[in-house]
Amino acid sequence: MSKQPRKQRKFLHKAPLHVRHNLMSVTLSDELREQYGKRSIPVRKGDTVQVMRGDFKDHEGKVEKVDIKNYRVLIEGASVQKPDGNQVYHSVHPSNLRIVELDLDDDERNEIVERKG
Questions:
Q1: What is the CATH number of the domain that holds 15?
Q2: Cβ(89)–Cβ(75) below 8 Å
Q3: Any signal peptide, and if so, which residues (predicted)?
């Protein structure tokens, strides 16, 4: 893999969706890290996350939508008011998030979290 920023940007821009999904990984909180033995897991709708950087620093909320195409996550409560009065979600890059609580309703997700390696 190249170190050149130009090639890194090109890779991110042209990445297929199954690769983008893994690039949407978010670090786990210290408790979850010890519990599951993993450092990060791809974020999903329903997870509770904490914003680590930006305008909504220290805000906690559930993930409303994961935008894989644009590498962004929409979080409940992290919204901005437009001049016409409408509330719009403020998108956050996954590198600026920390998962506080996992949504483990899905059996496949349980397998992913529990497996070793």
A1: 2.30.30.30
A2: yes
A3: none
- The structural domain count of the chain equals 1
The percentage of residues in the chain with a pLDDT greater than 90, rounded to a whole number, is: 89
CA 53, 42, 21, 15 torsion-angle sign: positive
Q: Could you read off the pLDDT of 51-74 as tens digits, one per residue? A: 999 999 999 999 999 999 999 999
DSSP SS3 for 9 = helix
Cα–Cα distance for residue pair 59/97, rounded to 1 Å: 10
Residue 19 in tokens:
């690769």
Cα(88)–Cα(86) distance, rounded to whole angstroms? 6
Tell me the pTM: 0.88
62 bridge partner residues: 48
- Structure token pair of residue 101: 């609580």
